């Protein structure tokens, strides 16, 4: 759990619900407004869980097919969301592998983007670009996110950012939360990853978009009528951590030491590679490091050494 739960605070005692209509009571609307201020956007919408945040975001953006979604082949959307983009939004998934082995670039993405007004009725035009930051621990630079979003907007393509772990990208000093959230049309922020919320996520966007997203969310019966326990834990995890990125960095100073970790661990890892690129939020060990009990034991010893 997050640091907010280590000592008594608002979430410890205040579980009053009042008149609960499922939308505005239990502190949900107040928390959504506070999240809007935290991200620098018009509004946010409280979601039951992070996958729903992504799926509601896509369905709200996309109208009637044909339409396609362009995304990284490694995306959580592709591998961990049961094909929801196809079944729920009727979208063709166009997956591409990054040319640099790290993140998608605008130049490479443009090669696969089908832009069509329907004149050629054999095409399935790209209507949405899905980005994930971080993706497998790799943080797409803010400058690349900006290039992609500006190009997409000029071609009437929307951009959704799966920022389930965006807090960690902010903690790695890749950019501020305001900077990342200002660029895409919508952002999904998980409230449990690294922050200590109980469940749920926040869908970030403008008011008109989120008004429709609330409607779409309800079609999937995805609304609690007693949200007080969830709002309390999520609000404490986020808002009592006054600067989530900065305070996560203070809790996990290894994020700033990833290059030092990579340098110091490499000669001790018996030939296994340790990556500590600037584009990563953490230092990554090669897949061979934990293939045996001896390697696992060695890894745990190294972790204890770093913590000291």
UniProtKB/TrEMBL annotation:
Pfam families: Beta_elim_lyase. GO terms for molecular function: L-allo-threonine aldolase activity. One of its GO terms (cellular component) is cytosol. Keywords: Pyridoxal phosphate. The keyword Thylakoid does not apply. Its cofactor is pyridoxal 5'-phosphate. This is Aromatic amino acid beta-eliminating lyase/threonine aldolase domain-containing protein. It comes from Sclerotinia borealis (strain F-4128). The lineage of its organism: Eukaryota, Fungi, Dikarya, Ascomycota, Pezizomycotina.
